[in-house]
Predict the structure.
Amino acid sequence: MSRILALDPCRRFTLGFTIEDCSFRLWVLNRGTLLRTKAFDFMKDQRSLVTVFLSFAFSSAENMGWDPTITFSHRDSENRRQYNIIVKERVYKTVKTLSDYSADNPLGRATRVWKVQDAQGKTRVLKDLWLEHDRLEEHKIYENIL
């Protein structure tokens, strides 16, 4: 699950499950927490097992963890994945990943920085990160330091 979050910027969170003998457990991982359900015996409680898989099958992409503001676009000539990113109704196309090393940590900001182009072809730098609601944004921290 942490590998999925590290490799795919289109994911807000990921779901998984484990089966050990007859014990079934559901897991949810996002950048802030890892949750797991209480294990149940799926041989005795088939209804819960069917409910979980039907929930997976009939959930929307957003409810399964996909971020609707970041979509896969194509692979470039060097086989690198490129994305379309929507910010305040503007679409930016990634050109190059400048930094994504902190995305490997499943819990944290998962900061990614891309070189992007806007609709007019102007090159910009776009920074994407998971910001906790109680943390200051970087430009405010910078202003406080100055």
Observations:
- Helices lie at 2-7, 46-58, 138-145.
- The CA atoms of residues 16 and 27 lie 5 Å apart.
- The mean pLDDT is 90.
